[in-house]
Every structure is written in C-alpha cells, then in structure tokens.
C-alpha cells in the first residue's frame, strides 16, 4: 500500500475495530482512535503509532503483547453488527516496532474506559505533539523543553513561539482517526518538522527581534568573558544558590538552625562549615539509610564522616555505638591512630589486620551476652582485609559414562557433563532463545540448551555469559558449582586417619600405664611414666606435617564473609572512605561493599572523585 486511506464513517451498528492473530486465535477489540506512520515503500505496511482500544481483558492483553513483540498480524477495519457478535471487515494491515510502546488507561465520555497504546515518538520527547485539550501551545512548549530540543520556553512565550512555528511551516497537523463523541474536548496530534539547530535559531531570532523577552532585561555582556563552567559557577554561585533555595527545602539550614551541641565538646573544634555539614547529614540519616559526601582534598572528609557517625547516634540518644571503617590500605593507620582520636579521644579503635582479630572480638562479645557499647567503638579495615579470601575451585568434574558398544565403536557417551552435587543434573549451556506469547498473553522465553562440553568449563569462575558460557551456578537448580578450598596438612583422608590412629594409641597406652602405676603410690614412678607418656605423644605430634604452601591459594577467610554470616545489624554506622575505588560491580571489593551495606544499619561514603577517576572541580 502506498498511502493509508482513512474511512471515517462510523455508527453504533458499524464501529471501528482492530483485529490481531495470537496463539492460533483471532481477537477483536473496539478502536476509538488510531494513528499510523505512512510506509516508505509501496509493498510495506503502515507502522502503528497510537491506538485507543477497549474490549475484554484477554483480547486487550493479546493485542498489547503482540504490539510489544513487533507483530505484523494487526488489522484495522469496521465491524458489522450481527446477532451474536460483530463481523470484522479489514481496511488495512499494520505492523508494530518491538519494545517501542507505552500503555496506560484513560476515561472517555459515558464512563467508558479504554487503553492507550502509544509509540515513544508521541510521549513528549520526539517529533509528535499529542494534546487532549485546547491548549496546544502548552503541549508544544513541553516538547521543545524535552530531551530532543532542550529549550526552556517560558510560559508567557508559548503562544508567540507556537504561532511562529505555524508561520514557518514547522508544524503540520497529522491525519488520524478518533471518535469525537467519546472525548470531552478536542483531540489533536501535530508533527514538528524542525531540527535542533532550527529550533535554537528560531528562539534566538525571536529574542533578537524582541518578540519574546526575559523577565529581567540584560545585554548579556557579562557572559562574554565566560568560556568554561568553573568561571561561570564562581561568578554566579550566589544567584544559583538563591534560586535553588527557593525551590528546595533543606534538612538543615545553617542560617536558621544551630549545630549539634555534642560537636562543641570535641577535642579538636570543627570548622563552622564542617560542623553544619555534619549536623545536616546526621539529621538526614534519621530518614534514609545512606549518604555520599563529595568534597575536595583536605576539606576534612574524614573528620566530617567521624562527626556524622557520632552526631547521628547522639540524635538517637546513644552514647556508644559500633562503627566499621572501610578504607584503602594506605589509610588504615591514619584512621586508627590519628583521625578518630583527633575529635573523639575516648573512642575505642580496633585496627583489624587479620580476620581472626574481628572474629575473636565478636565471639568474646557474644559470650558476654552481647552488651551494648558504652562509648564509640570503631573497627578499621582495609579493602584487602575485607575482600581477601581463599581461592575458589570447581566442586564438579567432567564425567562420562559409555556402554561397551560405545567404547568399541568410539561413540559419544550416553551420559556426560558436569553434574551438580545438589540436583544431580548436568550443567546446561543456552544455545538459542525464542520469545513467544503464552495463552494468557504474556511474553515467554523458550531456551534450547545442550550439555556443557569438557573444554567449556575452564579454570575461572564466570557468573555471566561473556566469551565463554557461565559456569558459576547450576543451570537447573542454581546451586554453586564452585567451592572455597585451602591447602591442608594431609593430602588424603587416609594420611590423616593414620596419624589420628597413632596419636590415639599413644594417648590410650600412656593413660593405661599411668593408671597401672598410680596404685603403687610411688611418686617417682608415676612421674617417670607421665614423662614417658608425654614424650611418646610429642614424638607422634612431631610427625604432624605443616600446612602446604600453594601459590594463589592462601589459608584465610575474607572479613566480609564472617560479617555477612554472623554480624548482621552489628554495625550501627559503616564509614567507607574513597568509595570510588569500590565502583566495580563484579569485583571482589565491590561485592564486599555491597555485602557490608546490606548488614549495616546506616552507611556514610566519602570521596573526592565521583566520575571515572576524574577529580571534580
């Protein structure tokens, strides 16, 4: 078809309708509005841009699903009322673009409900303007202020700009179908035929011709010497702050509210700015879990973050609290020995160099009945201590089972693959995916899989598909196919069993001899037997081998692993310094931060670098 031919004749006996073929069945819906994009070629169908429809739920869901999938089986036409249903007569066919549509409900006249299915081009950020009332100029103003054009058109300019667009033929009405009896006011769709450069030129010309003007008159001469953002911000920072202050209500206004009284008792007095920032963020933490502080080097971010942790708990009525301080390795001593004690000299600070130190403290605290802290208690850990863990090794191995005939004929085994120890299924690889609609009209993905070959598993743990398929978790049950493993003293259970047998015999034999001589009441003989028994046991213990040393397989556990499993909600506040170094979503220390945030009650993060390693001005 070269051009859509609209037939607007409609009666109660012959309503406009749409039809869709879905899951081997035809579905019909009533259509109250339709807009299409004309095809470029004569053999192509028109592309759906807008449909306003109603009908039973299954028909609507099937239509929406087909449109979302990019269907070519859509038809627009007219219904002929029969004895039991409407007989659909096609006028033309339609196609839709996959994933380009938005759905929302609408109320029409006569309390009739309908669903609007609109293309992204009609949602206010592209070339089309859709208006359900008479104020078309306001809708045009919103589109010009959207993502494509980015022009801030003042409300008092909208009529002038709209008329100028009409005058220059930048706006043209679009022919489409809609039932005027069902809309409370006029329904208009316009198309903007101007580029971003033409829009900029239009507004510039109107300003030069003084057809539109800013509320305050200025020549713009003061901006002639401004050629970078830094100069602009330094020059107009007061005006910007004043504008923001009128629109945003701050949690803490330094001009109206005093700082927290606790800050006045610090060993080192905070600067006024530090004190107000700490007060404002401490108040903010009462209503949200986490904050990020971004400031230049040497502005005192460490002092501010420490004060925030203390100030927040003071607001909660607590004199003591537990805080985890996560910092780069080069800053651990500075935090533990200088920064915290600089303002909180009575604070208890633990520098955690090994996970065992944290475990020992937590176990002792648990054995004491989990007492509440009576003073600020900080645990300073480096990124490496937090993330440093033992090595991962595969928990599965490639297995294959052949019959005698398969062995003789060198055929492929009937059973092979990496079998999950939990569900017993072979790990699968997705070879292809297809998308379809089920009977309820919902999108379903069908996957064709095959058993992973021996060479595909590899020696590294992969969570997502990259060049090689994922191998971290079982494709069938989701259980882990890898395990953490460390070097041991014995290479096999047989070796350990032999050592345990010799040691048990030495202990049993020594105890037996000691029992025999105790009846003699001879102290010297008893002491001699004891010495012989201990000497024999020491000889057996001397055969105990040392832990084997293997490159890349340390005998340690990451601190975050213990925290995640045993210390949930232990930390009242977590402080993370230089948080930009932990931005990697699939890195060990990035995951460590995520786990730490999950188990902490509140989180304070600090950085002087927010974007990709570039220092902010």
Can you lay out the helices and strands and say which pair or pack?
Elements: E1 16-22, E2 25-37, E3 46-54, H1 57-68, E4 74-81, E5 86-95, E6 101-107, E7 113-119, E8 128-131, H2 136-144, H3 158-167, E9 171-173, E10 177-178, E11 188-192, H4 196-208, H5 229-247, H6 272-284, E12 290-294, H7 301-315, E13 321-327, H8 332-343, E14 348-352, H9 355-367, E15 376-382, H10 383-387, E16 391-394, E17 398-401, H11 404-409, E18 415-418, E19 428-437, E20 443-451, H12 454-457, E21 482-485, H13 493-517, H14 523-542, H15 559-566, E22 573-577, H16 588-599, E23 602-607
Parallel strand pairs: 3-5, 12-23, 13-15, 13-22, 14-15, 22-23
Antiparallel strand pairs: 1-2, 1-4, 2-3, 2-10, 3-7, 4-5, 6-7, 8-11, 9-11, 16-21, 17-18, 19-20
Supply the key terms:
six-stranded parallel beta sheet, disordered C terminus, 617 residues, Rossmann fold, alpha/beta, five-stranded mixed beta barrel
Rounded to an integer in angstroms, the radius of gyration calculated over CA atoms is 37 Å
Can you tell me the CATH class of the largest domain?
Alpha Beta
**Which sheet architecture does the biggest sheet show?**
6 strands, parallel
Number of separate structural domains: 5
Low-confidence stretches are 612-617
The class by helix and strand makeup works out as alpha/beta
Helix % is 25-40%
Q: Can you say what the CATH homologous superfamily of the largest domain is?
A: Tandem AAA-ATPase domain
**Average predicted confidence as pLDDT:** 83
* Net shape: flat
Helical segment count: 16
Kindly state the number of beta strands: 23
Named CATH topology of the largest domain: Rossmann fold
Beta fraction: 15-25%
Q: Architecture of the largest domain, CATH level 2?
A: 3-Layer(aba) Sandwich
Sheet with the most strands: spatial strand order: 12-23-22-13-15-14
Q: Span from first to last CA? A: 58 Å
């Amino acid at each position: 078809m070269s051009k859509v031919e609209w037939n607007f004749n409609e009666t109660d006996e012959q309503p406009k309708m749409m039809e869709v073929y879905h899951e081997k069945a035809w579905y019909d819906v009533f259509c109250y509005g339709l807009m299409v994009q004309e095809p470029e070629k004569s053999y192509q169908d028109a592309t759906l841009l807008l449909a306003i429809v109603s009908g039973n739920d299954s028909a609507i869901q099937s239509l929406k699903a087909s449109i979302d999938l990019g269907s070519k089986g859509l038809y627009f036409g007219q219904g002929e009322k029969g004895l039991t249903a409407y007989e659909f007569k096609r006028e033309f066919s339609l196609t839709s673009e996959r994933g380009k549509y938005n759905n929302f409900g609408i109320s029409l006249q006569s309390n009739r409900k309908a669903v609007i299915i609109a293309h992204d081009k009609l949602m206010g950020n592209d070339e089309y303007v859709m208006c359900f009332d008479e104020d078309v100029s306001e809708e045009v103003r919103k589109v010009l202020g959207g993502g494509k054009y980015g022009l801030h058109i003042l409300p008092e300019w909208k009529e002038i700009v709209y008329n100028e667009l009409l005058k220059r033929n930048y706006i043209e009405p679009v022919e489409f179908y809609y039932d005027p009896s069902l809309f409370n006011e006029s329904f208009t769709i316009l198309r903007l035929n101007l580029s971003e450069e033409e829009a900029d030129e239009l507004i510039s010309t109107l300003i030069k011709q003084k057809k539109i003007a800013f509320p305050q008159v200025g020549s713009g001469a003061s901006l002639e010497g401004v050629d970078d953002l830094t100069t602009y911000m330094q020059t107009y920072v007061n005006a910007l702050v004043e504008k923001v202050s009128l629109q945003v209500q701050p949690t803490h206004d330094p001009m109206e509210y005093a700082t927290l009284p606790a800050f006045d008792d610090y060993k080192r007095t905070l600067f006024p700015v530090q004190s107000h920032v700490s007060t404002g963020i401490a108040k903010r933490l009462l209503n949200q879990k986490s904050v990020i502080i971004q400031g230049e080097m040497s502005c005192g971010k460490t002092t501010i973050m420490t004060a925030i942790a203390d100030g927040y708990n003071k607001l909660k009525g607590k004199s003591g609290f537990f805080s985890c301080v996560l910092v780069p390795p080069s800053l651990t001593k500075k935090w533990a020995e200088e920064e915290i004690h600089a303002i909180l000299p009575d604070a208890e600070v633990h520098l955690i160099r090994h996970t065992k130190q944290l475990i020992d403290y937590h176990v002792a605290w648990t054995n004491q009945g989990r007492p509440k802290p009576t003073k600020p208690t900080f645990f300073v850990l480096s990124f490496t201590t937090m993330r440093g863990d033992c090595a991962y090794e595969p928990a599965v191995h490639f297995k294959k089972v052949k019959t005698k005939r398969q062995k003789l004929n060198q055929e492929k085994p009937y059973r092979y693959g990496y079998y999950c120890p939990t569900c017993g299924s072979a790990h699968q690889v997705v070879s292809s995916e297809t998308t379809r609609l089920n009977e309820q009209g919902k999108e379903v993905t069908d996957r064709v899989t095959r058993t992973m070959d021996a060479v595909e598993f590899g020696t590294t743990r992969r969570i997502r598909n990259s060049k090689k398929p994922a191998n971290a978790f079982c494709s069938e049950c989701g259980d882990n196919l890898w395990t953490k493993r460390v070097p041991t003293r014995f290479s096999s259970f047989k070796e350990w069993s032999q050592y345990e047998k010799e040691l048990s015999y030495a202990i049993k034999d020594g105890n037996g001899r000691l029992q025999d001589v105790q009846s003699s009441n001879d102290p010297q003989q008893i002491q001699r037997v004891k010495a012989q028994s201990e000497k024999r046991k020491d000889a057996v213990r001397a055969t105990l081998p040392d832990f084997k040393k293997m490159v890349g397989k340390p005998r340690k556990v990451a601190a975050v692993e213990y925290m995640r499993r045993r210390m949930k909600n232990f930390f009242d506040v977590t402080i993370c310094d230089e948080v930009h170094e932990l931005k990697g979503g699939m890195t060990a220390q990035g995951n460590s931060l995520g786990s730490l945030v999950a188990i902490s009650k509140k989180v304070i993060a600090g950085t002087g670098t927010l974007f990709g390693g570039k220092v902010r001005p």
